[in-house]
Amino acid sequence: MIAMVSMAGCQEAEPSRTIVSLQIDSDGENNWIYVYTIPRIKMGNLTISIGGITETYSSVFSHQILMSNEDIANITEEGYFLLIVSADLKNTYWEFTCKMRIVPSEFDEGLFVADVLIEEDDNEVEKEWQLPYNLPLEFK
User: Fold this and answer.
1) Average pLDDT over every residue of 92-121
2) How far, in whole angstroms, is CA 15 from its chain's centroid?
3) 135 or 17: whose pLDDT is higher?
4) What are the tens digits of pLDDT across the range 64-85?
5) 96: which of 29, 125, 129, 133 lies 20 to 30 Å off by Cα?
6) What is the DSSP track for 44-61?
7) 99-137 in b/e burial notation, b at 16+ Cβ within 10 A?
């Protein structure tokens, strides 16, 4: 029984059965970007680029980045910051790229939304995500 419990957190990496998920949240002063795998499997590399500042993490299950509004203000271009998230697992790659800004909701006081610009078929599509928002990354 102890062996079964200790092995429950260890999964064999199977890319076709893995979801790499991106979660974004804000409390108005601080903002979080959280990337994780389902099931809990180590990624070979996880790269998060925010406003041109790139960090790569090797052999992680997940990673969370905290950004204050002041941090975001320093990296914005036309009110938006560039977000690129990519992950690999056994030569299978996931990626998501967008321009984003986090603003208070027009309809619900105390809630926040992400205004997101995503390239689709050579067009920039605008979306609004109520935070917290969760998005599975797509295969690259």
Assistant:
1) 93
2) 18
3) 135
4) 999 998 888 888 878 899 999 9
5) 29
6) EEEEEEETTEEEEEEEES
7) bbebeeeeeeeeebbbebeeeeeeeeeeeebebebeeeb
